[in-house]
Amino acid sequence: MTVLRLAWRNLIGAGIRTWLNVLVLSLSFVVIVWMQGFLEGMNRQVQDAMIATEYAGGQYWHEKYDPYDPFTLSDAHGELPPAIAELVRAGNAMPVLVVQGSIYSGGSMRPVMLRGIDPRQDIVNLPSAFLVQDSGAEELPLLIGSRMAKSAGLRQDDIITVQWRDAHGTFDAREARVVKVISTTVQSVDIGQVWLPLDRLRAMTDMAGQATLVTLRRGARPAVAPAGWTFHTPNDLLSDLRAMVKAKSGGTSIFYLILLFLAMLAIFDTQILSLFRRRKEMGTLMALGMTRGRVIELFTLEGGLHGVLAALVGAVYGIPFLAYTARTGIGMPKMMDSMGFAIGERLYSTYTPGLVLGTTVLVLIVTTIVSFLPTRRIAKLKPTDALRGRWT
């Protein structure tokens, strides 16, 4: 306790030098936690949006379905096995048929993915009810996203021509009406995608009872994947996203290192200056019976207390600031929409106890180590030389 009291008194007695170091270190605390919180918030926000809009409780894929290889799509469909068909009948799963096609509008042709979906489904957050049509209507109802509408120059109630190729390789075409343009943050259900009633698409392609993938309701128990189908959990489907966020986290670590380096440079300089200016004090302490180890402990503790004070000062102004940004979020520039993240117009940060405590402990450990390094010279200091103001 004596060493702690001495360290605290010396630290406070240093005045403005101590508080400048504490301010710089507290800024590093707050900025690191703030940036980590936004990365964590982006990760959760994107995952929640993709699970709600596309993946739900997981997906069964036809064995030939590869979303990254459109050339295999013509063979990636099949009848539902009994185990999956039972899930669909119980309302715990919905089949989706994916077929390559083209749309003609304004004298131009555009390749698209025709996705058949049950208009009455409530498993994913897509307004498929707009696809419900009067039995006498001849035009094919289409649902498209706002990005798809913008790139194709389409608006609600526009009439376009849809072309597709059926299971026998025969091309066919039909007029269709854009019944709804939806706004979604999930680009994979928007860009290049055209949604239409599943039964109409099955009839058009002569693929009765067939599907390319089946989406499971969240919380429903998945059946064992039958032969010819594979089940992908939401974790599997989000693995690419996690890898992308992890790569971005690695990039921001360089920024954290720069911040920590600047703060630790200030602590290191302060320690060097203290050792130089307080040589006689060290000699007096050793002459009074304090061992070199205790003197090293005293100076290291003084440096380490900078980190404790920085955590307290950072909490004073950092907690209100972080709470405000977590509640209101920050607006995202429009360029973020083209980077493949389902973020939306605002990004909300997420701060977990592990994130705050982990950052605090890391900075305290680094501060203590940097404070200790200059004090190693005290181990070779002779009390008589120190009292004369000299180093051995």
TrEMBL record:
Protein name: ABC transporter permease
Assigned GO CC terms: plasma membrane protein complex
Ranges annotated as spanning the membrane: 20-39, 254-276, 296-319, 355-373
Family the entry assigns: Belongs to the ABC-4 integral membrane protein family. LolC/E subfamily.
Cellular localisation: Cell membrane
Superkingdom to which the source organism belongs: Bacteria
Topological relation to the membrane, as annotated: Multi-pass membrane protein
Domain MacB-like periplasmic core: from-to ranges: 18-223
